[in-house]
């Protein structure tokens, strides 16, 4: 059973990484920056690049962020290995696997994309360009593309401060890796909060 759970975790991670990177590479090599493809009126593939954290948050330097991500993923990977070894429920292991895969997916962009692609401003990026990439190692930007403007309207004039301005919900643009992290965390908090607390408390006592 331990090995089947371990292989299940590996399968989740590999499938998510393959899907995440395949979509990002397709976007990068078929679309210019800020170009969009309408799938439905409330769902677009909108190509943007994120130099910071999830959903475009940028509060710390890129190099520090990349190194921090790598260290954090190392801890998550070790924690996941311990979970499999100690025979935790597969649902809990799957949640941690989602978070791990999502973090690794964005790290790949940060570490490699600046070197293996050129820029996407006004052009479709080339893979392994002769003149070199748009940035150095660990300074790549994360490719984002999922955009869900579920509500796109103009606020009434009587609304204080923002009256007459455009209102869009949901505005953030994200990728499959971000989704995996959010889903993993959400499921942990809903179904495995006590398991998480017990596991972390157990580690602290060792």
Could you characterize the architecture of this molecule?
- Helices cover 53% and strands 14% of the residues.
- With 206 residues, the chain is of the alpha+beta class.
- The chain has one domain.
- Strand 1 and strand 2 form a beta hairpin.
- Helix 2 packs antiparallel against helix 3 and helix 3 runs antiparallel to helix 4.
Please write the string of helix (H) and strand (E) elements: HEEHHEEEEHH
**Sheet with most strands: strand arrangement:** 1-2-3-6
Q: Based on DSSP secondary structure assignment, what is the total number of beta strands? A: 6
Percentage of residues in strands: 5-15%
Based on CA atoms alone, the radius of gyration comes out at 20 Å
Uncertain regions spanning at least 5 consecutive residues: none
What count of structural domains? 1
Count of DSSP H/I helices: 5
Q: What portion of residues is helical?
A: 40-55%
How far is it from the N-terminal to the C-terminal residue, by CA?
25 Å
> Outline, from the CA principal axes?
globular
Instruction: Output mean pLDDT.
Output: 90
Largest sheet: 4 strands, antiparallel
Question: Structural class from helices and strands?
Answer: alpha+beta
């Amino acid at each position: 059973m331990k090995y089947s759970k371990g292989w299940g975790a590996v399968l989740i991670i590999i499938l998510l990484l393959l899907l995440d990177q395949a979509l990002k590479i397709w976007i990068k090599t078929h679309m210019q920056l800020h170009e969009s493809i309408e799938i439905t009126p409330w769902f677009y593939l909108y190509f943007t690049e994120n130099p910071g954290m999830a959903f475009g948050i940028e509060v710390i330097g890129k190099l520090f962020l990349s190194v921090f991500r790598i260290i954090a993923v190392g801890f998550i990977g070790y924690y996941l290995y311990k979970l499999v070894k100690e025979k935790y429920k597969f649902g809990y292991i799957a949640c941690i696997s989602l978070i791990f895969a999502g973090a690794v997916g964005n790290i790949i962009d940060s570490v490699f994309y600046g070197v293996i692609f050129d820029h996407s401003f006004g052009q479709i990026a080339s893979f392994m360009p002769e003149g070199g990439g748009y940035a150095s190692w660990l300074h790549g930007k994360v490719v984002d593309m999922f955009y869900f403007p579920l509500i796109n309207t103009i606020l009434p004039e009587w609304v204080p401060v923002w009256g007459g301005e455009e209102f869009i919900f949901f505005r953030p643009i994200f990728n499959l890796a971000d989704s995996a992290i959010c889903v993993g965390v959400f499921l942990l908090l809903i179904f495995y909060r006590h398991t998480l607390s017990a596991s972390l408390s157990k580690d602290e006592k060792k």
